[in-house]
Give the backbone structure.
Amino acid sequence: EGQLAESGGGLAQAGGSLRLSCAASGFPFGDYAIAWFRQAAGKEREGISCISSIDGSVYYDDSVKGRFTVSSDNAKNTVYLQMNSLKPEDTAVYYCAAAQLEFVFGLSEGTACQAIYDYWGQGTQVTVSS
């Protein structure tokens, strides 16, 4: 059974940085895209970034482009989300999710990361104070 575990959330000041980790197990990491989602209180969940570990294709939502960087360490089956220049509106629970690459659309073009996700992490809280 596949599992994802996020870590690295916490409290940061506006303008500060945090790095989230998503450790994967129980499925062939190289065959999957790993995406980051977030959900703020009272709002819908939104996809913000995605990476293919096999070819390095990445996607960023406009809300995080230029501030967040997604990367993958295939030796550790772990994906990272480096978050810089944090804003109070980045406050949310952050989740990672995994989808089989053959069923992901838009990632190779960097325009989207549309997929049905097979595995989800439990989420990690990020709070940015002004």
